[in-house]
Amino acid sequence: MTDGWNWRRPPTPPAAESGRPAGSPWWSDALTDPWRDPQAPAAVVVPAPPASTGPAPEPVADPDAPRRSLAPILIICLVTALLAGGLGGTLGYVFAMRSGVGAGSTALGAPAQQNPAGVDRAPESLAGVAKTVTPSVVTVRVTGAIGSGFVVTGSGYVITNDHVVEGADSGAMSVAFSDGSTARASLVGRDPESDIAVLKVSKSGLQPVRLGNSDQIAVGDPVLAFGSPLALVNTVTYGIVSALDRTIEAGEPGGVTRYYAAIQTDAAVNQGNSGGPLVDGAGRVIGVNSVIRSIGASEAEAGNIGLAFAIPINQAQRVASDIIDSGKARRTVIGAEVVTGGTGVASGGAQLRSVDSAGPAARAGLKAGDVVTKIDGHPLEDGTDLIALVRKYAPNTVVSVEYRRGGSDMTASVTLAADSN
User: Fold this and answer.
1) CATH number at residue 195
2) Which residues pair with 350 in a beta bridge?
3) Which DSSP letter does residue 111 get?
4) Is 163 a catalytic residue?
5) What is the pLDDT of residue 68?
6) Which domain holds residue 225?
7) At a CB cut-off of 8 Å and minimum separation 6, what does 213 contact?
8) Of 3, 18, 204, 301, which has the highest C-beta tally within 10 A?
9) What transmembrane ranges does the database entry give (predicted)?
10) What is the pTM of this model?
11) 299 shares its domain with 196
12) Among residues 195, 266, 382, 385, which one is catalytic?
């Protein structure tokens, strides 16, 4: 036993004996440490790097590293914006010029100089059609009244309505053209029952209209109405064909009753449009504007409510040709007198009051008392429908007729004729 005053460190065993390599750290000989608790396990634990559980940390930029300049990027963006703006402005200008949308004012708001005569439109556009037709349309001035008309021949024949020239002094008639020029007009002839009249003007360089075929139009076709409504000369309105073969009975009490199977349109038509042309989308005249339907209590209060009626050009042209050739028009007849004024049969149809024994109806086998229900497939409501539709056709036209006799339905082919007047 010793009190330790003369303690000496036990001699260090050689590396081979201690089981550790020479030069290893002092704690690596723990297994041979005499002061170690012999019951405690010994282990040298070197912690492993922690496992990655997320995205790698962002690298830390070196604050001392040289920075890349942003100037090239800013220059590229600026050049791109300038190029895009220039291209957009150029395209916008081109499209605006092609669509006719010019600069109406300067940057300061002052009106820009404009040249309407230099504005071009495609001939097939509505503006192109209006530009083509307008020089052929005239304003008819008759003893203080105003109507419309249109030139049909280069020699100066003009078609208008009969009611435009009714009661006029032929010496006081004149026409005005779209360019502001005027010419004296003389009455060639008129047909009150068809509401067509023909004038003649002496003027060189006239531009006649193109005539269409009113039998080839359809409901929904676009139309333009030309004339001088309410004395507003050189007016053009737009609409569609609203209905076909709309039977019209018009006239003043005590005057002539006019019948025709009209073209109905919603183009705005007012007093003063009478006699002007109704034109299709190709610029061809398909009708003569004649009558409006109004809710006004009097003729002076009448105005457009979207119900206007035009005489089909096929009928108007035929009547005008008769007037030019012979001074009077032939009317197409079926050779029977019909019941009119709402006193017909309750079930609809045109009842024949009497039949001319030598007329077209008698030759086809029809008799007094028969009720005509259809002509050429068109249903009839009363006698007015039959008269108006018959006058739509030219003399010598063969039409199919459906009629009732007693309780039987029958059909016949009728060759229409011209009246003897």
Assistant:
1) 2.40.10.10
2) 372
3) B
4) yes
5) 61
6) 210-326
7) 284, 286, 313, 314
8) 18
9) 73-96
10) 0.71
11) no
12) 195
